[in-house]
## 1
Amino acid sequence: MLVIEDNPVDAELTIRLLKTAGYDVTYKRVETKAEMEKALQSRSWDLFLSDYSMPHFSVQTALGLYQFYKCDSPFIVVSGAIGEDKAVELINAGVNDYLMKDNMTRFIPVVERELRETRNHRNLLNVTYALASSEEKYRSYVENAPDVVFLADLSGNFVEVNEAACRITGYTRDELLNMSVLHMITEESLVVAKEMFSRMKSTGTLNADLEVWHQNGSKRWIAVDAIQLSRSLFLGFTKDVTERKNAINEVLKTREELQRFNQYLMDARENERASVAMEIHDELGQALTAIKIDLKWVMENLSDSAKSFQKINRIIEMVNETIKKVQRISAELRPGLLDDLGLATAIEWYSGEFEQRTGINCILMLEELPDGDGRINLTLFRIFQEALTNVIRHAQAHHVKINLKYRENEISMTIEDDGVGIPADKISSGKSLGLIGMRERAKQINGTVVFMKKYTHGTKIVIRIPIPTHEPESL
């Protein structure tokens, strides 16, 4: 306690009263401005007791120092009669209470009350500061969070949003605060969203992946987790999961395409087997049957040498024709030219066969490829075959141009026709199994296939196959 008093006896009286009331008192008495200032600089004080008038000091000066040093402990005046006006003036100036020296019955209750109120006031300040600090931290965390944090009412209207909400949606904070969550959700997700909001009102929680509109008109996917805070508000946390959702959808789409493609390959294999079986049965079977009949005739008519000689010549001709048929069927299954003379020669041979069958003119610009991976040659040849098959089926073309180029790090093949052109939706369709097959073949050797409808008319296919580089082994 700091006692501002010029009379030591009066100071001791107040100390004795406090000790009698059970207080453990440490005090210092001052009676000048310099002494009080030194005491205020030396330590903090729990209670200030001041006389009203002293020869070298005044309560007004003491109160001014008390306020200058921002003290918050009780300041109580204990003095003689000063009049009601002076007492009111002191209270208005910041004194906590005023007591008469000749009537100290209220002294202890006043001290207890003021110390208690000071303690409560300090606690309140600490709680207020803690709350303010906590709120500031909360706002800092929320505002700097990488994901969306928002507060909305149960009608879906935004009440508060953080900076991430503006960044992810493209809207300003003011625009969002004048919007409803439901207004951002696409029609495809709106039914799910309304069902989830309705369920949240009964369960108190919401968890869903929803497709929403970005401010620029694009669609995004968000994962929403929300909890109901009160009867009218819920707190939501949102993460942009567009890339993850697109990746999942792409995987599902690819899986469906592969399933259809596998079925397509199985059907194609069976059709090819049936075609080969039919050709063997119809052409080779008939030829071999005729040879067998003629050989049997020769055996039965060996005595007639002239006619037997004619039959043998005919058998030789049929054998030669049969050999050609076998070569043709074998070449269609896998041309030997591809392995013996390379891709350019195989394409040239197949194009000639194609022209004879269809009447569609083939314009060739082919560069010979160096000896390399046989898989590249086979892949490009099969893609070329599939492309010409599509020309027959769909293009209604009169000319096809095939351009095969070799560069140091890449082989490219371009196939163009002057037909009706491929529809844009067919290019991206998962049901165009022929296109999927070409893409998958190229993908097996790290290549790409691009389909495009030409500006004027026709379709253009560009195949690019990287050539793997082999680093020399270090010694």
## 2
Amino acid sequence: MNQKTGLEDYYVIRNQKKMRFGYTTGSCAAAAAKGAVRMLLGGLMEETVRLLTPRGIWLTLALEARETGEGYASCAVRKDAGDDPDTTNGMLIFARAEKTDTGIIEIDGGKGVGRVTRPGLSQKPGEAAINPVPKSMILREAEAAAEEFDYEGGLRIIIYAPEGEKIAQKTFNPRLGIVGGISILGTSGIVEPMSERALIESIRVEMNQHAAQGEQYLLVTPGNYGADYLREHMDLPFEKNIKCSNYVGETIDMAVDMGIKGILFVAHIGKFVKVAGGIMNTHSHSADSRMEILCAAAIWAGADLECAKKILACGTTDEALEYLQKEGILRPAMDRIMEKIQFYLDHRSYQQILLGAVVFNHTIGYLGQTSHAEELIRFLKES
């Protein structure tokens, strides 16, 4: 884009690279609404609009697909996620403004904006998936435009995204029970590249929704490996599983805050062996120590110096487990790992909730489970 947005000097450094900030679908919707209302009430066919985001950053955003007709005006703003890997990047977010005789400003979603079907989200079932902050931004811009042109009648503003239904399949929306399209999101109006906060917030939203449906015990998998193992090898309600990515500690913290009674993690050893060392963010950029933790467990189980050196030289946990099998100490070493995982899970929650884990790998399969896992499995089957 040649148009300067106001974000040119905003960036973060990740992995020695400068990464650009972007703006949210909420900012797109608010800017498009501002443009559409100004077209409708003032006949202004502006090419750009200025928008103050909740973050305090002013944006200058280009208006595309401008159109006016009998009693309506519409336009769109193209989403720019900066250097964040966002599935909505490049989408056109439209706003259509119409005059009404209600005396109030109504905001709703149209084609490609999802509808909420389950409780536990910011919107009630049946409402458009337009989050509270974007909705307030849209309302603020519409009210300001109405005041500017001394308009005292009502307005109906429809936010829509023609590509939304297709793109929503790549988002969390199907898991959250949001059907028919994307959500209009953003608490700051700004997208920070590869933001951990955004991912943790999406996990919190999903957890809160499960809690709102009366689930007191949660089934959590760090990623696809855990989800696949759960589906193929465990007699538990797969559809209830929540993915926590690398954020084991934050997931526990949020569960305690929500009043959840317990969590069962189903996880690959490559991720969860780190928890046996007290590492609660399992991303490799945060910490590793997989081989050191496995080596310590092997020595505890009776491994000699040569075996310990071989484990430390391994590149994968699967390779290290082969050495444990050859030495005949896989079972006691895994028992030690499970004991330490349980210890650090409990330590994170200060034993305020029931926590446990089932751990596996791809070559051996089931490797073990922590002391509270069986109890959690029973509660999950009964719920």
